Structure formats: C-alpha cells, structure tokens
Amino acid sequence: MKKLKVGVLVSGNGSNLQAIIDACQRGEVPAEVVSVITNRATAFGLERARKAGIAAVHLDHREFAGREAYDAAVVAELQRQGVELVALAGFMRIITRVLLDAFPQRVMNIHPALLPSFPGLDAQQQALDHGVKVTGCTVHFVDEGTDTGPIIIQAVVPVLPDDSVETLSRRILCQEHRSYPQAIRFYAEGRLTVEGRRVNISGEHVSSDVSLINPSAR
Ligand code: GRF
User: What is the value of pTM for the model shown?
Assistant: First the structure.
C-alpha cells in the first residue's frame, strides 16, 4: 500500500509526534511523517524529527505579519514536502482558514479531554476542577472553532482521588499515544467518512461491551 504522507505541527515535547513516527516505522500505520514544523525553536519535537531523518523546520510566528501570513508559510512548507494529512500535536497556535482551505478535511488534532468537555487550554486542570470521574483524549478533524471538529476517536481514563495535573496528564498521554496513530491509520486506509458531525469508520465493529475505548483498540 502506498504510504500516506503526514506533516506534524508541534510546539513542545512532541511525544505524540514520536508515537506517530514509531507506529509508522513499526508498520502499524501505512503512513510516513515527511515534515515536522514548529513555531518554537526549543521544541524537543524538532530533535525527535531530526533524529528520525524527517525534514524539520522552525517557523517563528513573530517574524510574520499575522496568523494568515504564518499559515501560508506553513502551507508552503507542507506542500513542498508533498504532505497529504496534517496532524496538530501540541501545536499551541490557533490556525486559520488558510491552512484549512489548503487541506480540507485533512487536518487532525488531539485534545487531552473528552470533547466537548473542557476545550481550550489546561484541559486536565479543568477536568480536576470540575470533579469528573473520567476524562481522556479526543482525536478530531479540525474546523474553524477551538476543539470543535468532528470526533474520530476517544479514549477514556479514570480520574483518581489523589490525581495532580501531572499524574492525570501522564495517564491521558498513554492513551493519546495509542489513539493518534490509530486515527491516522484509519485515515490512511481510507476508512473515514464525515457526515455532518459524525465520523464513520468503515470496517470497525465496536461491540457493546467495550466501554472504555471507542472504537476498540485492536
Ligand atoms: C498533548 O496532551 C496534546 O493532547 C495537547 O498537547 C499535548 C502535547 O504533548 N494538545 P506532546 O508534545 O505530544 O508530548
């Protein structure tokens, strides 16, 4: 199968980027990361990309006139590398129509909560403050809103009584590292169709006794 070319946008540690790179290299996802872009020179994701031999670029947002101009530069770089799917992985910037129009229904994001609960920043702290008993992560297509696009995969984790932001974030991250490669796999296999807010996954049968991850991880 021809490999899907993925571009990943990061601002920080890049552990999701690493999970995607690793899953592709293990042959679990028929895709390859061909471009990594960051807005922060210090992002560890840059190092991860370079170590894996992936074209990695730092585009400093302060050097651009505005969000549209910045996104146009991002699009140019992604197109230069032949990217077919864009994965936002801890990319701490609001993206504009410029990116969405260049990659229609081809931009994904991961969020560390069960959307539509706790969108935006500090999702883990929001979950703790609200006192929920379960939270998790969501992989979704990106639309113009903040964390509002059609949901592809969600995974659930418990919130424990003595959790801190750090312990809860770690538990969620473990699920992020499974969910993001899985969502990219579904996309790469051509199994995702979007109807309004719903994302259908062909060939995936979720049995009713699987309650903690949807769709089931197999
Ligand atoms: C993750 O929790 C992701 O859900 C959020 O930002 C964090 C990025 O972590 N959007 P990493 O850089 O992939 O380690």
Answer: 0.94
Partnered with residue 10 across adjacent β-strands are 38
Ligand 1 neighbour 90 (Cβ under 6 A): yes
Residue 151's DSSP bridge partners are 140, 198
- In the set 58, 111, 130, 205, the catalytic residue is 111
Provide DSSP, 12-57: S--HHHHHHHHHHHTTSSSEEEEEEEES-TT-HHHHHHHHTT-EEE
Q: Please list the residues that pair with 137 across neighbouring strands.
A: 155
pLDDT in tens, 114-139: 999 999 999 999 999 999 999 999 99
Ligand 1 centroid to Cα of residue 57, in Å, is: 19
**Residues 6 or more apart from 149 whose CB is under 8 A from it?**
109, 140, 141, 142, 143
